[in-house]
Each structure stands twice: as structure tokens, then as C-alpha cells.
Design a protein that fits this description.
Strand order of the largest sheet: 1-2
Shape: globular
Number of strands: 2
Bound molecules: phenylalanine
Number of helices: 17
Distance between the termini: 52 Å
Radius of gyration: 22 Å
Length: about 475
């Protein structure tokens, strides 16, 4: 514990057992590092680059930035405000700020989404861990490039290996979480983020110095506005949520660990900017090499496990760079998992008054139990379908197409109309101490009028109820 430990106000209504000091982040820098550790993930290394490549390059990046301003950032700021004002986990924060109402269901949706997302996110993170060893051992470089898809198939059709890797991810994440907010989450984020950045820089330099790299840079940045359709716009909006880790209680929980002197909008902008830079750097590590060796840039989701190994293996020192690339991807995916795990752990330890270790163990076991269904979706359960989807796809669909947008609408309505714009501006400017009120008023206006409508459109079109 240190001077920044957050003490719950004794006047607020809460069970006696929880009137205790609550650990928060030790420093502002640590808070930013932890938040960035959550934001950086497979969304940066995999989703953003392939979506940019497929959807108009620089034009997509501009649309994405616009979406950040109308959706990702306003919701992120609301979550920070809700978390810090209440000093509580994702569910209790709503109970404290709007006692006796049903708004707390927003928090329930958040905690549920965080847990369900982990079912499949841990599966993919497990594949990434497995690929570090495949790359390092030379198992990927030994095969004929045409056989690279077979390596991925061999990993995913077996029920055992992916499960073991998924459990390895959960063990790492559980260990960091048990160590605590400061000694676990914050310290690990501060240590590994520079490593991630450095590895990405090394991969960028390698890719950009290949002959023929220019075509990839061109592909990534050439603005092609003809590709921007309403569907692409909606996909960018969804991506801005996913990348900013909002709508699932993560930012509310992290907001509750921030100190009264922290600059919430400043942290938000630093995280968003760094996150976008890292996404673009990931694109620069991938596309120049893809073009230099004549591979297809629009591979979509298989980019990470098939195209990238093929491409890296075509270059000098490819085995080394491929290993580094998967290490950095594993760091990013683990950071995202840590923040997701903290949501149920904060909830259980505060609501049930469990020790942190017990809350972590129970959360990890629940994710392991149901995550098994996602892990087996490519092997022994591949024929089992829920509403036409495998377990893996079903978990992905319910969270990203239903829970997250619903929570997004609820959070923006709650912040804009229940907490009110004035409270947002007051809290986010540290009661007027920070001279950023006009920016905040603009963001609060967007939050009140634009964000809920934009997300509702995403929700309805995602469910196929409206066609754009
Ligand atoms: N932001 C992470 C990514 O880009 C994903 C994530 C979503 C992490 C939600 C935590 C919560 O991959």
C-alpha cells in the first residue's frame, strides 16, 4: 500500500465488510502503462493491420480515428469517471452512483462479457504461445511454405496441445493478478511494454529494409475512399471499442484504481495515441514483408498464423524475427488477458469479500472450464453448433455483437444523462484544476447525443435488423 491507496468513502452505502482500504495504481505513469497494456492486444497486431489492408489503407485509418472520437474515447472517459468517482468494481460502481436503479445491470453485462471474452481470447493467446516455440525451434521454417497452413491445422485439430497452451496463458495471467494491482498488473505492464515496443521496432526495421518493401507501405497508407462503405464504418466503430478495451468493465475497474490527481483525459489520449501508433507499427512490420515476397495482403484472420510465418520464413534471419514477432504478440495478448481477468477478480474480492488469491483461482477455473469449449471448437467439438456457430464463434458473437454494444449504449446514456455532462466535466477536470474544460465539454456533448445513436446503429446492423 502507498500514499495513493484509495480509501472508500465511509459515508457511501456499502456492506460493512468492504469498508477497507483498496489498493490502486502507485503512480500516474503506472496507471497509463496498465491501461495501455490492456489496450494493446491481438486487436493491434492482427485485427487492425488486416482490416486496414482490406478496407482502404489510410482512408480506413482516418475513419478509425473518427470512430475513436465518437465512440471509443467518450466511452473510455465515461468508464474512467464512473470507476474513479465510485472507487468500486464494475457492478458496485453503478450501484453507488445510482442507488436503487437497474443501471448496475450495465456492470453485470461488463463482468459477464469480460469472462466470456476470455473463453476464446485465451484460446487464441494459447495458439500464440505455441507459435513462439514452433518459430524458435525451427518447426515453422523447416516446412515448405505451402505447408504452413498445415502446421496451423495440425495444432488446432488436436484437442490436447491447444488446451495445454490455453492453461499456460491462464497460469501466467493468474500469477500476475494474484501479485496485486501494484506488484502484479502495474509492475508487469511497466516492464514488458518497452520490450514489446522495442521488438516491434526491430521487426519494422527488418521489414522496411527488404527490397520491395515500398509496395507494402503504399498498400497500408494509400487512401482508397471507395472502400469506405457503411459496413466498413461500423466495423471501425466496433474496432475502436475492442481496441480501447471498453464496454466490459475493464476501464471502470482500472478507473477505480486511479488517483484523484490523475489526469483522466490526458491518460486517455496518451493511451489512444500509443495504441494507434503500435497498430500502425504492426502494419509496417507485416505488409512490406508480405509484398516483398509476393504474398496476398488480404488474407484476413489467417494473417497471423499462416501468412506471417510464410513471409518471415522467406527473409534472411526469418526464424529469429518470427520468434521475436510471436513473443511481442504474446506480450500484447497476455496484457489484454490480465485486464480482463482483473474485472471478475475485483468484483469477487469486493462483493464476496474473498481474498484476492481465492477470487483469482475461482475466476481462472471458470475460464478454464468454459474456455475448454472454445478450445475444442476446432477439434473434437467442431461439429457442435449453437445457433449455427461453434462455441468459439458463439462466445465471440454474443460478446462483440450483443453485450458490448448494449453496454456501450448504456454507459454513454448513463454518463451523459444520469451522471450528466457537468459531473463528467467536473470529475475529468479534477474539479476544474485541469484546464481542459472545452475539450471535455465537446466530448461530453458527443457522449450524450452522438455515441448512443452510433452504437445503436452498430448493434442493429450487427444483428442484421437493419441493412446499411
Ligand atoms: N484491447 C485488446 C486488443 O486490442 C482487447 C481487449 C478487449 C482487452 C477488451 C481487454 C478488454 O486486443
Amino acid at each position: 500500500m502507498d500514499a495513493r491507496t484509495v480509501t472508500l468513502s465511509p459515508t457511501s452505502p456499502q456492506p460493512k465488510s468492504t469498508v477497507k482500504t483498496r489498493q490502486g495504481f502507485a503512480t500516474s505513469l503506472g496507471a497509463i502503462a496498465a491501461t495501455l497494456g490492456s489496450a494493446l492486444g491481438l486487436g493491434n497486431i492482427w485485427k487492425f493491420p488486416y482490416m486496414t489492408g482490406q478496407n482502404g489503407g489510410a482512408a480506413f485509418i482516418l475513419v478509425y480515428l473518427l470512430c475513436l472520437f465518437i465512440a471509443g474515447l467518450p466511452v473510455m472517459l465515461s468508464e474512467f469517471v464512473i470507476g474513479r468517482r465510485s472507487g468500486s468494481n464494475a457492478v458496485r460502481s453503478f450501484k453507488k452512483l445510482a442507488p436503487g436503479t437497474l443501471w448496475y445491470l450495465t456492470g453485470v453485462a461488463g463482468v459477464t462479457s469480460a469472462v466470456v471474452i476470455m473463453f476464446f481470447y485465451s484460446t487464441v493467446a494459447g495458439w500464440v504461445y505455441a507459435y513462439i516455440f514452433k518459430a524458435a525451434s525451427g518447426a515453422l521454417s523447416a516446412v515448405d511454405p505451402a505447408q504452413t497452413p498445415a502446421v496451423f491445422d495440425a495444432l488446432t485439430v488436436s484437442p490436447i496441445a491447444p488446451l495445454v497452451w490455453q492453461w499456460a496463458v491462464l497460469a501466467v495471467v493468474g500469477t500476475v493478478i494474484i501479485a496485486g494491482v501494484q506488484n502484479g498488473i502495474e509492475r508487469v505492464a511497466k516492464t514488458v511494454l518497452p520490450v514489446l515496443f522495442l521488438l516491434l521496432l526491430v521487426c519494422d526495421l527488418r521489414a522496411l529494409t527488404l527490397s520491395g518493401a515500398a509496395a507494402g507501405v503504399n498498400f497500408l497508407f494509400r487512401p482508397d475512399f471507395s472502400k469506405i462503405t457503411p459496413a466498413v464504418f461500423l466495423a471501425a466503430l466496433g474496432l475502436s471499442f475492442f481496441k480501447m478495451s471498453v464496454c466490459m468493465g475493464v476501464m471502470t475497474t482500472y478507473g477505480s484504481y486511479m488517483g484523484s490527481e490523475d489526469n483522466l483525459p490526458g491518460s486517455m489520449l496518451k493511451v489512444a495515441l500509443s495504441d494507434t501508433v503500435v497498430s500502425i507499427m504492426a502494419g509496417l512490420a507485416i505488409f512490406p514483408a508480405v509484398f516483398a515476397f509476393g504474398y496476398q495482403p488480404d488474407a484476413g484472420p489467417s494473417l497471423l498464423f499462416i501468412t506471417i510465418p510464410m513471409v518471415f520464413n522467406s527473409m534472411p534471419l526469418g526464424q529469429l524475427f518470427l520468434t521475436l514477432f510471436f513473443i511481442l504478440t504474446a506480450i500484447a495478448a497476455t496484457g489484454a488477458m490480465i485486464s480482463l481477468m482483473e474485472v471478475p477478480v475485483a468484483y469477487l474480492s469486493e462483493e464476496k469479500n474473498w481474498p484476492r488469491a481465492k477470487a483469482t483461482l475461482v475466476s481462472v477455473l471458470v475460464v478454464a472450464a468454459f474456455g475448454l469449449l472454445a478450445s475444442f471448437s476446432t477439434s473434437i467439438l467442431s461439429h457442435v453448433q449453437l445457433w449455427g456457430r461453434t462455441f468459439f464463434d458463439f462466445f465471440d458473437f454474443v460478446t462483440s455483437s450483443i453485450f458490448m454494444p448494449l453496454a456501450g449504449v448504456a454507459i454513454s446514456l448513463f454518463a451523459g444523462w444520469v451522471l450528466t455532462s457537468k459531473a463528467i466535466v467536473d470529475e475529468a477536470s479534477n474539479n476544474g484544476q485541469l484546464k481542459n474544460q472545452s475539450f471535455l465539454r465537446g466530448l461530453a456533448f458527443i457522449l450524450k447525443y452522438v455515441t448512443p445513436i452510433a452504437i445503436t446503429i452498430v448493434l442493429l446492423s450487427g444483428l442484421g435488423l437493419i441493412k446499411l
